[in-house]
Design goal:
single chain; mainly alpha; 61% helix; 0% strand
Length: 74
């Protein structure tokens, strides 16, 4: 019985963490230094969080149907 070695890819995980850190820092900078109403700020935070969650689901293959969604005719 041949033994298979399992290769773990660490680089995509590091890139994933880097993207999450960059998005978090950018959102913090916008919330901290750009004056806007609280309601607009909460909507912006919600949209960013939903987009990041959908992106993570797509990255991990749990939401693979994202690429098959078409809007309009075509």
């Amino acid at each position: 019985m041949a033994r298979q070695t399992r290769k773990v890819k660490i680089m995509p995980l590091i890139q994933l963490v880097e993207v999450l850190i960059v998005v978090g820092v950018l959102l913090w900078l916008v919330n901290r230094f750009i004056p806007m109403q609280g309601s607009i700020k909460s909507i912006l935070n919600g949209v960013v969080v939903i987009a990041v969650v959908l992106w993570l689901l797509n990255v991990f293959g749990l939401f693979h149907s994202l690429s098959t969604v078409h809007i309009g005719k075509g």
